[in-house]
Task: inverse folding
């Protein structure tokens, strides 16, 4: 089978690495990919994964490529092309494609849609309101004493959420998103949620439109600095499983969230095929959904896939073809930890093109994988090419060992002004 993966970050490297282990894949491309993805080889015939210099949002060029190469199965990882309707476009051209269609991708591309949907189907979430008038938004924020999460409705690179603790800051945040349009038109509507307290956990459910299968738990670390200080980022590190929900509690969460969500999808004619990724807050009043994403998490994927025993392409095909009911997900009991190494300055401005050393040494470590995110090859040298540069991942029998192994690999790698958190998974050891 010939497979095209769309995207070029750490999540896509993890997907490509796992897909390449399948005996079913004879050729694989990744658009646009990165330097790490280009080093992967297929288990079936040892051929390299080929990079295609087409951006993930360039739908017409991707379509031309997939038709020309007669791609059998396209796997779309990032939110932008999904929101732009890549799945609808490819399917209309007879190309088998994994990921939610445009209507289903609205769970991520519109926070207002998601919030209304949760309220309609009784899915536990924060108290909230949706506004297109800043004055009304401010009135609502005042009823929460300014303790709120102010969220741009549309996609904003994971940065369109401002957390505030008093009325003045809430008003400032509303003006920043709605009046100054710091996140562009994504902010013409805002969702304002009450500020929830508790432990955050990521869930993933693979869906085929009729059936949803929950993954184990994972936990991301969104803030840039240790002890959850600093600005929000795309995610600075993950581990799986997260010990804050027992198996029994995870099943209960499935019943409270995934079951009514799927029922709502079916009632409203939303054919959701792909990953639903709810961000949860475990509050004193029970688990509540902060947001829905409609794709694999990054860097959650980097800790899920080393634990997944199934053939990934078989699983995604079952998701696309509506056969998930016949498939059991199998997970290794091992714990995986991923530490993100980022460019100095991220999530603000940062330089690119800095040489990275130590990758060969890190590659010799057992049960360890350095997933590339923002990297590229320049004259045979791997250099930085983004904010999040590497996702250094290790898996072991227990969390302490996995954490030590991930940090031991980080120590082997260096580039100028590399920044990483030193407390990934530390909460779980307390
Ligand atoms: P989101 O993109 O909606 O997941 O928000 C980004 C981050 O903001 C989340 O990972 C949380 O850490 C935080 N956050 C979002 N909504 C809330 C909320 N209602 N209460 C507290 N923290 C929140
Ligand atoms: N882990 C954060 C995200 O994928 O949005």
Result:
């Amino acid at each position: 089978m010939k497979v095209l993966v769309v995207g070029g970050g750490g999540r896509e490297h993890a997907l490509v690495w796992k897909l390449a282990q399948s005996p079913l894949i004879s050729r694989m491309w990744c658009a646009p990919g990165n330097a790490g993805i280009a080093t992967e080889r297929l288990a079936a015939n040892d051929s390299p994964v080929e990079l295609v210099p087409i951006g993930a949002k360039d739908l017409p060029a991707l379509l031309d490529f997939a038709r020309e190469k007669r791609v059998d199965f396209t796997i779309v990882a990032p939110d932008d092309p999904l929101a732009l309707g890549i799945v609808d476009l490819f399917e209309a051209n007879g190309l088998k494609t994994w990921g939610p269609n445009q209507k289903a991708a609205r769970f991520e591309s519109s926070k207002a849609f998601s919030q209304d949907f949760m309220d309609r189907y009784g899915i536990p979430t924060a108290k909230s309101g949706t506004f297109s008038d800043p004055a009304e938004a401010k009135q609502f924020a005042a009823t929460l004493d300014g303790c709120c999460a102010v969220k741009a409705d549309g996609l904003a690179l994971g940065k369109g959420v401002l957390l505030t603790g008093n009325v003045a800051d809430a008003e400032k945040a509303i003006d920043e998103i709605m009046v100054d349009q710091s996140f562009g038109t994504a902010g013409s509507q805002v969702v304002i949620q009450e500020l929830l307290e508790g432990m955050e956990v990521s869930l993933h459910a693979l869906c085929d439109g009729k059936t949803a299968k929950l993954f184990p738990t994972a936990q991301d670390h969104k803030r840039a600095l240790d002890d959850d200080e600093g600005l929000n980022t795309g995610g600075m590190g993950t581990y799986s499983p997260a010990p804050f929900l027992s198996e029994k509690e995870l099943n209960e969460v499935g019943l409270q969230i995934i079951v009514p969500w799927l029922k709502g999808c079916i009632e409203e004619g939303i054919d959701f095929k792909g990953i639903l990724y709810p961000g949860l807050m475990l509050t004193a009043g029970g688990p509540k959904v902060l947001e829905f994403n409609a794709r694999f998490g990054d860097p959650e994927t980097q800790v899920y896939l080393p634990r997944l025993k199934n053939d990934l392409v078989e699983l995604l095909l079952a998701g696309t073809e509506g056969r998930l009911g016949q498939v059991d997900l199998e997970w290794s009991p091992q714990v995986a930890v991923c530490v993100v190494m980022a460019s100095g300055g991220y999530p603000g401005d940062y330089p690119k093109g800095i040489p990275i050393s130590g990758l060969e040494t890190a590659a010799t470590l057992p049960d360890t994988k350095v997933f590339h995110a923002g990297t590229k090859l320049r004259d045979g040298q791997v250099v930085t090419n983004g904010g999040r540069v590497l996702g250094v991942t290790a898996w072991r029998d227990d969390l302490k060992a996995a954490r030590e192994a991930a940090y031991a690999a980080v120590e082997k790698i260096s580039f100028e002004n590399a920044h990483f958190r030193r407390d990934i998974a530390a909460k779980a050891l307390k």
